[in-house]
Write a structure and sequence with these properties.
This protein is α/β, with parallel strands linked by helices. The protein has helices at residues 38-47, 55-58, 78-91, 113-120, 122-127, 154-157, 190-197, 214-225, 252-265, 289-299, 322-330, 334-343, 349-361, 372-377, 386-397, 418-424; strands at residues 2-9, 12-19, 23-26, 65-70, 99-104, 129-132, 138-143, 149-153, 161-167, 170-171, 175-176, 230-236, 242-248, 266-269, 273-278, 303-312, 362-367, 381-383, 403-406, 413-416.
Length: 426
């Protein structure tokens, strides 16, 4: 008997049929505790912030306000959150002319006007100024202890109040997204982002880790140089609906949200699998390989050494980043990428090295829209469907190979039970 499992793929899906005897488990989010969701949960969080007064008591009439939100590569429903924030600002006496919505593009491409309108919502886009962060026009607001320049796009740096909107999910070296990440790397420069991300090679820089994580520490220090007045962060379910909202202090509220994320998305597993099938969950998380890679990193937590990871992502916009593409396509072999990042850290190259690190653990079969020759050139094996990739994995590892399915691979974080972790590392 086969178990059918759907994996998000672009704006559609692909189905895998896995023999029941081979399937160790499907890593789906845990049940959501009873409580409000959507706009009701958002209103609850805004009315009961953590570590700060309500937003309506923080902002004063006439102040310049920057509302920083995520770009098109993130699943954040900004169009649902920004209106609630603007209502709080209205109650504080702020008018539309006082507010600028800033899309935190980091090192990503700029938006089209249509994309900005889709992100902010038609009404917000038509009533307040909406702009991308501009890395060519920044203000230096200091330097962190680790040497990261806090260069912030001018419209944010010169604002009287900064409100950061984001979603919280696992991040493969910053621990978690959200919080002060809206500032660093969100509205910073490539040089600053590169300095911050260079700490990804430290052993504590891992998904789900905050304590002692040098990347997150550097991010939070950057926010002390460029103070955040208020955050609104949300946790989304697999349908991208808001199931938890936190608001208030950029660290206290953020950590509350991280704890909730663990409750829903940290998935304990008994043993590592021979084969892991992982998808980021479809658009926009698989818009390119640069974004799809996040599911690859999580999948490495569930696969045995020498196994196979089937990574399913549309990648309709290609590899997604110039340096990432150049490093991958010019490399002689995966180990050369790891050696290169250790001696010459470059933003974009860091994700190429992350792909190489995954290949130290397992072969990677990429199900995508990318040309097969390109996929082979970057050391991955190309397939058009999960069905074809799974057939090839069974042929390589044997018909009795165990399988773990991760249809929400960018969100769910496998955690091997401690006693089994010790056994697997003897």
């Amino acid at each position: 008997m086969n178990v059918k499992i759907e994996f998000g793929y672009g704006n559609s899906s692909q189905t895998a049929e896995i023999p029941e005897k081979n399937l160790l488990g499907t890593l789906r989010p845990n049940p959501v505790p009873a409580g409000p969701s959507g706009e009701a949960e958002l209103e609850r969080a805004l009315a009961n912030p953590t570590g700060t007064p309500p937003l309506s008591q923080i902002v004063k009439p006439g102040e310049k306000i920057a509302v920083i939100t995520s770009d098109i590569t993130r699943p954040l429903p900004s169009y649902r959150i920004i209106p609630a924030v603007l209502e709080q600002l209205r109650q504080a006496g702020a008018g539309p002319e006082d507010v600028t919505v800033v899309f935190a593009t980091g090192s990503h491409r700029a938006h089209t006007k249509a994309e900005m309108e889709r992100l902010a919502g038609k009404e917000v886009f038509g009533s307040v100024r909406c702009v991308d962060s501009d890395p060519s026009d920044v203000v230096r607001m200091g330097v962190t202890k680790r040497g990261t320049p806090v260069d912030i796009t001018r419209v944010v740096a010169e604002a009287d109040r900064r409100i950061c909107i984001g979603n919280i999910e696992y991040h493969y070296f910053a621990g978690y997204s959200g919080g002060a990440k809206a500032i660093m790397p969100g509205v910073s420069t490539r040089e600053a982002i590169q300095a911050n991300h260079s700490y990804m090679l430290c052993p504590e820089a891992k998904a789900g880790i905050l304590e002692g994580n040098p990347v997150r520490k550097d991010i939070d220090e950057a926010a002390r140089r460029c103070p955040i007045d208020f955050i609104v962060n949300v946790v989304l379910d697999e349908k991208k609906e808001i199931i938890k909202a936190v608001a208030g202090h950029h660290i206290k509220a953020h950590r509350e949200g991280c704890g909730y994320l663990d409750l829903i998305y940290k998935k304990e597993i008994e043993t590592l699998a021979d084969i892991v099938i992982a998808s980021p969950g479809g658009a926009p998380k698989d818009i390119n390989l640069y974004q799809t890679q996040k599911a690859l990193d999580n999948a490495c937590r569930a696969v045995r050494r020498g196994g196979v990871i089937i990574l399913a992502g549309s990648c309709r916009e290609g590899l997604g980043e110039e340096v990432f593409e150049r490093w991958l396509t010019e490399a002689e072999n995966p180990p050369s990428l790891i050696e290169r990042i250790r001696r010459d850290f470059q933003l974009g190259g860091h994700k190429a090295a992350a792909v190489a690190l995954a290949l130290e653990t397992a072969d990677v079969y990429l199900v995508s829209e990318l040309p097969g020759a390109l996929v082979r050139n970057i050391f991955l094996q190309p397939f058009s469907t999960i069905k074809e990739a799974l057939k090839a994995a069974f042929e390589k590892l044997g018909p009795d190979s165990s399988v773990i399915a991760m249809p929400f691979g960018a969100s769910t974080l496998p955690a091997l039970k401690w006693q089994n972790f010790k056994s697997s590392n003897k």
